[in-house]
Amino acid sequence: MVSAYTVPPIYAAFVWWFSTGAVLLLVGRSGRFEVSRAFLAGVLLAGSLGGLALTAGDISVGGAYTAFTCTILLWGAQEIAFLAGWLTGPRPQPCPVGAIGPKRFGLALQAILYHEFALLACGAAVAALTWGGANQIGLWTFAALWVLRQSAKINLFLGVPVTNDELMPEAVQFLKTFFARKPVSAFFPLSVTLATAVLVIMIQRIVEVAITPFDIVGLTLVSTLFALGVVEHWFMLLPLPAITLWGWGMRSGFPPEDTTMEQEQDVKTAMAPPNLVVLANVRSDAAPPKLSPGACARQRLEDQFRQSYREQQAREGLTAAHTICPEPAATIKGRTS
């Protein structure tokens, strides 16, 4: 009976952490493994819906774990479609400079409208598959995820000190322009307070109402997930970089050639004497490697620096040629020797 209280929080926390990192890992490399990602998202979608349908009447402990896991997989499938840029909105473009108020809100909604419809469709599918069934863990889990996600989106739009936008893959980088990095609005304490109140009610039901192992496990799984969602809200306020939790999933966003270039550049800079410009070794017979946008920007900066250095050296050479005059030869009694 003790395991009904101790195992579900550990399982829910691991699934929350691992599923987030796995999604980031899958969508991190833009343009690569596109077919594989689409196939995996389709398998997750079909498998999770099928699992929810099979466990709708299962009130065993295994049924609770299965329904919870299937809902997480369903959420992961739609997150893959969203973060890969397949399902965003009718206007997947950055926010124009100067857009404020209702105009900014309308543009933000257009940027994610298809994704919001997909979430509602998934929620309707979960409700239809579990309608009338004794196992409602899947529906509770999806409702918790949806409420917390909407709250997080609103807070990011209205303004928070820490946006953690470094977690966003390249395909949806335009959404960062709709985030406001500033002190929290009045909505933040309201949303966190309400979420905490709901969490307290869930814990109270576990202690006072839940009797069967199914009820205890199911409520503990959902309440743990809800508590982690509240913690994610505090990540927007406290200087705790979320990338420390999912850095292993973000490594896929940087091609190996980029990290190798950065390491080689750091070594050359450290070994070079002061005032010495380190130029990259370029072979004319070698084909130029494909670089990511970040590497291209870095290359342009290096080229500009080299050009400025050459122009400065040329100007100094001309100045020296004009100012330095040849000394007259030594003379003896006024005559040149």
TrEMBL record:
Highest taxon in the source lineage: Bacteria
Coiled coil: none
Keywords, ordered alphabetically: Membrane, Transmembrane, Transmembrane helix
Designated name of the protein: DUF3623 domain-containing protein
One Pfam family from the record: DUF3623
Organism: Bradyrhizobium betae
Keyword Cell cycle assigned: no
The UniProt record lists the keyword Transmembrane: yes
Lineage of the organism: Bacteria, Pseudomonadati, Pseudomonadota, Alphaproteobacteria, Hyphomicrobiales
Transmembrane domains' residue ranges: 6-27, 39-57, 63-87, 107-131, 184-203, 209-231
